[in-house]
Amino acid sequence: MAKWLVTLGILLVAAGLLWPLLMRLGLGHLPGDIRIERKGFSFYFPLTSGIIVSLLLSLILWFFRR
Questions:
Q1: Total structural domains within the chain
Q2: Burial of 44 (0-12, 13-18, 19+ CB in 10 A)
């Protein structure tokens, strides 16, 4: 359990450090991300970005398990 928590912590720190770079690459503004903006209301659901991040994390964790 401790090994998983350390791995999760490292991944979260890495994601936090890489976030500005990922935003420059367009992550968060991809086709398929849902954005609704109206007067006094905004809704944002990063569907495509979430799928890409999930796939990358799954691939990284798969490599760690081997």
A1: 1
A2: exposed
